[in-house]
Amino acid sequence: MYADGAKKNGTIYQGAAYEGLTVHFLELAFAAGGKALSDDGKKSEINSPENLKALQFMVDGLKSGAVPKAVTTYMEEQSRRAFEAGKATYQRQWPYAYAKGQDNPKVKGKFKVVPLPAFEGGGKAGILGGHNLVVSAYSKNPAGALKLIDFETSPEIEKQDAAKYSLAPTLAETYDDPDVKKALPFAAELKQAVMQAKVRPVSPVYPQISQAIYKNVNAALSGQVSPQDALKKADTEINQALATF
Question: Which of 48, 149, 200, 221 is the most exposed place for a label (fewest CB within 10 A)?
Answer without folding.
Answer: 149
